[in-house]
Amino acid sequence: AKAAYERQLASDSTSVRSLYRLAVLASWDGQLDSALALAARARRVEPGDPDVRLLEAQVLSWQGRLGAALAKYDSLRAALPERTDVALARARTLAWANRFDEADAAYAAILAREPGNHDALTGRAQVAAWRGDLARAAGGYRAVLAQDAKNADALVGLGQVYYWQGRADVARRQVAQALAADSMNAAARDLDRLLRAELRPQVETGADWTNDSDHNTSWTLHASATGALVDGVRVFGATSWARLTDPGTREAAERVGGEAGLGVGLGALQLTGAAGLRRLTPATRRVVSPFPGSLPPAPRTAALWRAAAALRLGATTSLGLGYAHAPFDETAVLADRGLDLDALEASLETTLPSGTALSLGVGQTWLGGPTGSEDNVRRSVVVGVTQTVARQFYVGVLGRMLGWDEAGPGRGYFAPSRFSVGEVRAGWRLAHRDWESGLSGGLGMQQIEKGVDTQAEWHVEGRLARRFGAASALELFGAVTNSAAVTSSVGETVASYRYRTAGVRVRLGL
Length: 510
What we know:
It contains 13 helices and 16 strands. The chain has a 16-stranded antiparallel barrel with strand order 1-2-3-4-5-6-7-8-9-10-11-12-13-14-15-16. The model is unreliable at 487-495 (pLDDT under 50). Helix 1 packs antiparallel against helix 2 and helix 7 (100-113) runs antiparallel to helix 8 (118-131). By secondary structure, it is α+β, with helices and mostly antiparallel strands.
């Protein structure tokens, strides 16, 4: 078809239909800039062509340029108020912009004129789902399917509701029906890929390296596996081994352990629990503890457990609460001390109608040791705001603050009474066919203790991934930062501090 339209265009460069069809094909292939360029050529020949104007608005909405898209929809609707397809496309764009009240009203206006319009009915159900009213959404989709059992949009919409409810097996059956009705339905194909990856047993393995300017170096090997037990219940297990270099003796401590757990979906509520053991072997040349009041280092086996709950409030908001108990063993020095952490964290993530993503996290950590003299408490809060400014680019700001009740150097970990940092961050991410890549960074100021001078803070990180099928991938990543909010084996951080990490991940869908 593309070749035929190109031949026709070669013989008649003013063929609006050929330009329009080529623009449609380009948009289907993800070449959105090319689609807009072809539509602009068609508009120069025939400025008022309604199909070309509608295509321009649709492509702008797919690019995330929602304001420009809505302006074109409004202009076209004013000229052609009888065009239902224009009203439907405008309502969908309002929904994508999270302007749910306006989108629902737009669909209601269409239904007032055409009570049985299936596109408007499924649109209202989708708005209800994105608002978090999954029961109303499911009822809306079922009402459409009662009239048209092969309506692909309603089938995939109901499948999405089931997926959000943690019923992946039922969702997969809905998607299979949607694809049988319309094998090219983009939403059905996307959800099908997601569900196949979700339901397929997976194995992941990888290796990480970290190093900092306090001369703490670690090498970690890890592996995990996960799979569905029954619909809505997943089992998982993980194991890891790490070699932690002591910056004083240059000898290495070892850490080996594993855990097993369950994930359970109860509608919009997701519950996770896991427990395991970790064996810590101190550096071989260490014969006494460098910390007064601490016991001499000796191998020990420590228990670890964690539990978390996540509540999805529609497509744009989620709440999280988690608790974890684990040994404090990020460095060789800490692995020798017999310290344990109990951490409680709560989080909120939401996307505003403007498309701005907000995140908030608060936490408290209790540190305990074998003698009681090491007991300490840390409190923390982090706030982030991110805005996508183009399809692949985003900008944002982040603020973080933490502090320990018992502060000061010489503890074997970074323990300020107050550490605060604020940064401006930006990033680029691109997914093309089987490749994904990303590069991000931040620049700001940090204060590592009350009353001391602030210093510059920055970080840079990148990743590159190659996907193989629905659930398999190879990923490389790396990052470097001078942020003081990491463990320090000497308990003090200076302006020249650096923290570096790199690694590789391999995920296989079985």
